[in-house]
Amino acid sequence: MERARPHLTRRRLLHGAALTAVPFALLPGAPAAAAGTRTVDCPAAEWAPASTANYTASSRPASHPVDRVIIHVTQETYATTLSIFQNPQKNVSAHYVVRSADGHLAQCVREADIAWHAGNWDYNTRSIGIEHEGWVDRPDCFTDALYERSAGLTASVCARYGIPMDRAHIIGHHEVPGTDHTDPGPDWDWVRYLRLVNFV
C-alpha cells in the first residue's frame, strides 16, 4: 500500500535546508568514525589505521619511488598486531596485515605514506610492508587463505607501481640489509607464493 506523501510546508522546507548545511559528522546519531574514515588502496582491505606517531606521512611515489614488497610474519596474533600499530609508543607499523585463518586484510598505513617496518630507512621509503599473522616456527599459520589473499594483494601492489613480480623485488624481512629479523622464516613457501602472485 502506498503511503500518503507528507505535505511540504514552509517550516519543513526550512528545516530540510538547515540540515543540508550541517556537516554529516555533527548530526545526532552519526557514527563517530565517519569523519576519520579513509579510502583504502586495496578495495579488499578494511581500514585499521596505525597511530600517526608510527609512520611518516609522505606522497609516494612522487616523493620516493616504490620498487619492492617486503614480506613479514607478525610473531603475534592479528588483533595484537593491530593494537601494536595503534599504540603511539611502539614506533612500528606496516601497510597491511593478513589474518591467518581466512586471509582477511587490514590496511594500517596508506601506500603513499612510509610505514616503519623494515628496520632500514632506505628500504622503508621504497617498499610496501605486508605483515602475516603467525610465527616463523609454526608453518600451520601459513594457510591457503593467507597465501592466496596476500599474493593477490602483492600482485595488485606490483601492478600499481610497476614492480617486477620476482624474488629480487618481493623479499623477506630477513633480506633487508642491517636487519636482525628472520621472518618470514624457512617454512614460508616462496615458490608457491611467487606462483600465486604471478597467477593472479
Topology:
Blueprint (H helix, E strand, L loop, with lengths): L9 H12 L24 E2 L7 E2 L11 E6 L4 H9 L9 E3 L6 E3 L6 E2 L5 H6 E6 L11 H18 L8 E3 L17 H10 L1
Parallel strand pairs: 1-5, 3-7, 3-8, 4-7
Antiparallel strand pairs: 2-6, 4-5
Helix pairs in contact: 4-5
Structural features, described:
With 200 residues, this protein is an alpha/beta fold. Helices cover 28% and strands 14% of the residues. The chain has 5 helices and 8 strands; from the N terminus they run αβββαβββαβαβα. It has helices at 10-21, 78-86, 121-126, 144-161, 190-199, and strands at residues 46-47, 55-56, 68-73, 96-98, 105-107, 114-115, 127-132, 170-172. The protein has a 6-stranded mixed sheet with strand order 1-5-4-7-3-8, with helices on both faces. The protein has a two-stranded antiparallel ribbon with strand order 2-6. Strand 4 (96-98) and strand 5 form a beta hairpin. Helix 4 (144-161) crosses helix 5. The longest helix has 18 residues, at 144-161. The radius of gyration is 21 Å and the shape is globular. The relative contact order is 0.16. Mean pLDDT is 86; it is low at 1-36.
Quick recap of the structure?
By secondary structure, the chain is an alpha/beta fold. The chain contains 5 helices and 8 strands.
Give short descriptive properties of this protein:
single chain; 8 strands; 14% strand; six-stranded mixed beta sheet; 5 helices; alpha/beta; two-stranded antiparallel ribbon; 200 residues; disordered N terminus
Helix content: 25-40%
- Provide the low-confidence segments as ranges: 1-36
Over the alpha carbons, how many angstroms does the gyration radius reach? 21 Å
Category by helix and strand content: alpha/beta
- Put simply, the count of helices is 5
Order of helices and strands: HEEEHEEEHEHEH
Shape: globular
Assembly form of the protein? single chain
- Terminal Cα separation, in Å? 50 Å
Number of strand segments: 8
Strand order of the largest sheet: 1-5-4-7-3-8
Report the sheet-strand fraction: 5-15%
- Overall mean pLDDT score? 86
The description of the largest β-sheet is: 6 strands, mixed
